[in-house]
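REVIEWER CHECKLIST
Item 1: Sequence provided? yes
Item 2: Single chain? yes
Item 3: Sequence as submitted:
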Amino acid sequence: MDKLIEFESLAAKKELEGDGEFYLTFLENTLNKEDNKNIAITGGYGAGKTTIINSYFDKYKVMANKMIKVSIATFQTEQDNSDLSRSDENVLEQQILQQMVYQVNPNRILNSRFIKISDLSFWYLFSFLLF
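Item 4: Structure as written out by the authors:
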């Protein structure tokens, strides 16, 4: 007799289940405090971090338009995190900045040294070729 094995999807869920509304309320209250500028959600793989963030962004669309999501995948090695070298810190900072820059409209970061590839208008290309 063949028995069907069902696997649970580890993809982010579309909606929070059970007591999940608690997390959205907590995030909303935390983000409404003027002093809080950065919020980090940490947890193990499959803990529901992405589900919480996506649910918040779906529920509070006005606030979500003012926010940027940054995802840093961390893989523990045998060494302790306190042993991070300066070059490792620089790489981490670069990853965070890169994600931030690529989510923001280029017109909002005019004096930045970061250059973001964007679509060039027909007239820009035409004038460039004509020149």
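Item 5: Key structural point noted by reviewer: The mean pLDDT is 77.
Item 6: Recommendation: ____
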